[in-house]
Amino acid sequence: MNYKFSERLSTFSSSAVREILKLTQKKSIISFAGGLPAEEHFPVAAIGEAFERVVKEGNKAFQYGLTEGFLPLRESICRWMVHKGVTVTPDDMLITTGSQQAIDLLTRIYIDKGDVILVERPTYLSALQVFRSYGATLVSVETDRDGMVLEDLEAKLKQYRPKLAYVIPTFSNPTGNAWSLERRLGTIKLCREHDTLILEDDPYGELKFGDATVKYPSLFSLDQHPNGSCVVYTSTFSKTVAPGLRTGWVMGDPEIIRNMARAKQAADLQSSTLDQQTLYQLMTHFDLDGHIEFVRKEYEKRMRQMAQLLKGQNWPGVNWAEPKGGMFFWVELPEGVNTSDLLKTAVDLGVAFVPGVSFYAEESKFNTMRLNFTHNDAEATITGMERLSKAMDTVLVK
Amino acid sequence: MNYKFSERLSTFSSSAVREILKLTQKKSIISFAGGLPAEEHFPVAAIGEAFERVVKEGNKAFQYGLTEGFLPLRESICRWMVHKGVTVTPDDMLITTGSQQAIDLLTRIYIDKGDVILVERPTYLSALQVFRSYGATLVSVETDRDGMVLEDLEAKLKQYRPKLAYVIPTFSNPTGNAWSLERRLGTIKLCREHDTLILEDDPYGELKFGDATVKYPSLFSLDQHPNGSCVVYTSTFSKTVAPGLRTGWVMGDPEIIRNMARAKQAADLQSSTLDQQTLYQLMTHFDLDGHIEFVRKEYEKRMRQMAQLLKGQNWPGVNWAEPKGGMFFWVELPEGVNTSDLLKTAVDLGVAFVPGVSFYAEESKFNTMRLNFTHNDAEATITGMERLSKAMDTVLVK
């Protein structure tokens, strides 16, 4: 039997993160690699109670449901989004199997082979993987600590006439940066002028560190919405409740949402009814905002610990900045160091990270790495940093 | 803002079934439309106990997991498949968000625009939707009560050199037919000779009626497997446990499975960890086979009741046959009757079915309909058939 795979298959590179995740499940290494939340802070007792309520609701809770998602959950999310300056109805949203699926579905209904998508430099690697699988041409926009550089964005909008711009303006994966208000407003204005749709990926928006009075309003909230919005917004419960419930959502103009629902019918008919019902009960009977605040504080502590440890290293020629939120430190090593090679040494020494190369759409910087600070406790973080330090010694000239 | 949707979008017709499902959630009509299992028979207490065990396993159960699926669940499914004559390891399988996702992922890695896919006539409408969305050219093979007609299959293999053949050999959706052993073996032989991969969709295999000694071995079990198999096999817990846990699986040559896993990373990273862990606990501590036998008997009762009611109608020029298993009756009305028009009348009278038109890849028969017999209890079925009878009176010449 000769298998005849599609041309498309060659575009699916296996994600470095997922491959490493496999590795770390097997070996007793300390991983700063995966974007894993701290499982000891999952509200498991509350999830258990929520599930009991689902069972009491009766057997219908385990039946097939609507492709668009369980209506009471969509209503709860709509109410919850009001505190983020977003006013939508359940018809303007779709429940997805994690926000990863929202990226896939929007690409499916919006992008043909050869269409251009603008992305940040660097950006989320699994989004790049999706875009490539649909044959999109990826163009990076210069990105600094405040977001996409507007002059470069405008030049690339004019040059490439992209259909879509994919951004993570609030606590970027991988950099932890947050866009300034000026860049947010400027990006919306420019993209609207050029009829370029923005996909705003916001998994980390709730995990803000530092000055509580500083706000980072979503692009979706800043633009007219939902009707005629030039922004499609996606978020998830994976970082605020638990990834195992595999539930995200996407909001936007109802025409876009309807079309994404049609694509979702083909993709998987619907997301898990059980997860959706459980999350609905959790949102109704549990202090989710209180829990998020608790997790946020814990992650800020872990971030500060890792910042302290990084500072202590005094690695020559190594640059990093304190993330404003989210889950990651982004570290730039001296030119010439290849962090993919370094990873092998690191894993031998019992520690893992993600080499930065996968986060670039083009002209990858081989001397970068992403470090997760949310998953390990204080002790493991100290040990992991000691091991990483040994690995770094093999490539840094002191 | 002018939205610029992909060309692909025009291929996503909204599924008639899903639209009707929406309708029936709103109105108090009796629905023979959706392929819904009987929710009163879901093993909800056992699912509840399984979930409690998951919670006891600790917080890690709610963390991100492997794209390939929760290993203990894959191991359990492998052991369970032995009674179906299938011997595979967890590396030869992937957990999916329902078997619908298996259809989508295989198409994604195997089919380019213009590639030909052979299908039965008629066949599962949501598979047609997936194939069309990837730009496949669909060709129907003549199909009778015993399966694909081998002469027509051979002619079409030669004429179209298809990459894939999609089949539901055991209790077809929509017809309830089961292929004979001769057709099963003949199809494998012919497809192997022409290097055409077979996607065997088997959601209903456990729901067999009539003579218990008659066996319908899966194509996958009849072919060499998993290495070098010309069959990729998919099934689901939706019909044997509950659809709300949204978990299916796919088995095949490990190269195909690895490639499907790469596509799944992009599509949704992984399926619900909670659902997978719950199903693992259920398979370990619950008599799943006993439960399946109970459900099978219940469905056979319901099938016989509906057969009795259909017989009693004596509708002139209307043909149907008793299904050998599964969930559906397939009814052919006199030429010239359009069941899509009839559906409007039927819904006004308080009953729904699926017009057959959507189950054809080409040259649709407009005078067909699919009736589900598993979802309604005896009383609702009687009332629904009375209503359907009134609707039929408007189109049948007595």
TrEMBL record, chains A, B:
<dbReference type="Pfam" id="PF00155">
    <property type="entry name" value="Aminotran_1_2"/>
</dbReference>
<keyword id="KW-0663">Pyridoxal phosphate</keyword>
<dbReference type="InterPro" id="IPR015422">
    <property type="entry name" value="PyrdxlP-dep_Trfase_small"/>
</dbReference>
<comment type="similarity">
    <text>Belongs to the class-I pyridoxal-phosphate-dependent aminotransferase family.</text>
</comment>
<feature type="domain" description="Aminotransferase class I/classII large">
    <location>
        <begin position="39"/>
        <end position="380"/>
    </location>
</feature>
<keyword id="KW-0032">Aminotransferase</keyword>
<dbReference type="InterPro" id="IPR015421">
    <property type="entry name" value="PyrdxlP-dep_Trfase_major"/>
</dbReference>
<protein>
    <submittedName>
        <fullName>PLP-dependent aminotransferase family protein</fullName>
    </submittedName>
</protein>
<dbReference type="GO" id="GO:0008483">
    <property type="term" value="F:transaminase activity"/>
</dbReference>
<comment type="subunit">
    <text>Homodimer.</text>
</comment>
<dbReference type="GO" id="GO:1901605">
    <property type="term" value="P:alpha-amino acid metabolic process"/>
</dbReference>
<dbReference type="InterPro" id="IPR015424">
    <property type="entry name" value="PyrdxlP-dep_Trfase"/>
</dbReference>
<keyword id="KW-0808">Transferase</keyword>
<dbReference type="InterPro" id="IPR004839">
    <property type="entry name" value="Aminotransferase_I/II_large"/>
</dbReference>
<dbReference type="GO" id="GO:0030170">
    <property type="term" value="F:pyridoxal phosphate binding"/>
</dbReference>
<dbReference type="InterPro" id="IPR050859">
    <property type="entry name" value="Class-I_PLP-dep_aminotransf"/>
</dbReference>
